[in-house]
Each structure stands twice: as structure tokens, then as C-alpha cells.
Amino acid sequence: GAGVSQSPSNKVTEKGKDVELRCDPISGHTALYWYRQSLGQGLEFLIYFQGNSAPDKSGLPSDRFSAERTGGSVSTLTIQRTQQEDSAVYLCASSPGNSYNEQFFGPGTRLTVL
Amino acid sequence: DQQVKQNSPSLSVQEGRISILNCDYTNSMFDYFLWYKKYPAEGPTFLISISSIKDKNEDGRFTVFLNKSAKHLSLHIVPSQPGDSAVYFCAARGYNTDKLIFGTGTRLQVFP
């Protein structure tokens, strides 16, 4: 199928290390979102890309978090100097944009910071 | 400050009965509401949505009701089936943005 894919599916890292999480959105989708779900919590918005517009970074919890989207397709979420509280499932979603209401989610990357 | 709240972390319903999942919100500027369903180790999948200009939307066994004055919406599943067992998230979208604000989810268990 041509759904949203994310890699890796699981990532275990040591505190202080940097990690990169990848998202491949559905082909042709102009909007891409990153969320995270910590244990027992809902989905927390992190960042949103729409076409060539400047991304909405209002949900990034600290300057250790950054994301980019190359060529309007693949996105990478980078967490520098990871902390234990960064442990969560990181979910990527895409949508056709143009205020299309439904977002299509990938399976997520489970990040564990030891 | 939780703008979208799902106060029941879990719900257990017998197969064939009605499941009612509730969601409250605080921001009157939300203009669109969605329900997502999530199975373990999978991403959430879209279930049903409703615009703020409506008070009801129905799709098969699933109906969403919106009470704007109470800032409350609910998802009704009838009849409930064991395959409906999952975590259900309520989400809201503000006017002129595509960003979704999610609740903490309600785990529904449908038993035979």
C-alpha cells in the first residue's frame, strides 16, 4: 500500500545522543505533521509543514527538537542531546492539504532514551 | 492546559450494546472535530468527523453528536462489536489552521 511510512519502527538510545526519525508521506500530500504520544498521554502536536510555507513549529517542546522536509516530501525529525522525557511514540501524518480535514497517520517510531 | 478532554480513560461494553465515548473542549474557535481509532502498534486511523455547523453526523454504526453550547461531543457505536476494541481519540481543529488538538484517548473494550 502507499500509506505513510516511518523509520525506524523502534529506536533505543542513550541519554545525550542525537536521533533522527524519518517520515515518508503519501505521494502527492502537501501537508505533513509530526506528533508524539508519551505514556498515558494524548497525541501532542509538534510541527506542521504545508507546501512551501514556513512550518508551524509552535508545538516543539525545546530547541533540541527540529524538523525539515526536503523537496516537499520526506521529513526528518531530529532530537539533539536526548533526555529520558523524550521517550515516546513519534507519529507522522500527511494530508492532501487545502484544508482537507482528515490526516493519515504512519505507524510511528517508538523512541526509548535510557 | 488541556483544550480537548476525554475524561473517561476506559470503557467496557458488551457486544451488541451501544458504546458512548465522550469528549469536551474549551476553545469555542474550534470549527471541526474528528474521531480517530488506534490499535496497538499502529497509527491512528480516521473514523468520523463533524463540522461545527452541524450537530450530528452518521456513518454506518458510528454517529457523532456535537453540542456547541456545552462544548461537548460524543461518539456512539451501535451495535458494538469486539473488533471495535481500541483506543479512541477525539481531535479538534481551529479555524484557519490544519493543526489538530487531540484528547488523551478512551480505551474501549467490547466483550462477548
Uncertain spans of chain B, ≥5 residues at pLDDT below 50? Answer: none
Q: How is the quaternary structure best described? A: heterodimer
SS strand fraction of chain B: over 45%
Distance between the termini of chain A: 34 Å
Question: How does this model look, in words?
Answer:
The complex is a heterodimer of chains A (114) and B (112). Chain A has 114 residues and is mostly beta strands. In chain A, 0% of the residues lie in helices and 46% in strands. Chain A has strands spanning 5-7, 10-13, 19-24, 31-37, 43-50, 65-69, 75-79, 88-95, 104-105, 109-113. In chain A, strands 2, 4, 5, 8, 9 and 10 form a 6-stranded mixed β-sheet that branches. A 4-stranded antiparallel β-sheet of chain A has the order 1-3-7-6, with no helix packed on it. In chain A, a hairpin with an 8-residue loop joins β8 (88-95) and β9. Chain B is mainly beta. Helices cover 0% and strands 57% of the residues of chain B. Chain B has no helices and 11 strands. In chain B, the strands form 2 sheets. In chain B, strands 2, 4, 5, 9, 10 and 11 form a 6-stranded mixed β-sheet that branches. A 5-stranded antiparallel β-sheet of chain B has the order 1-3-8-7-6, with no helix packed on it. The mean pLDDT of chain B is 94. Chains A and B meet through β4, β5, β8 and β9 of A and β4, β5, β9 and β10 of B.
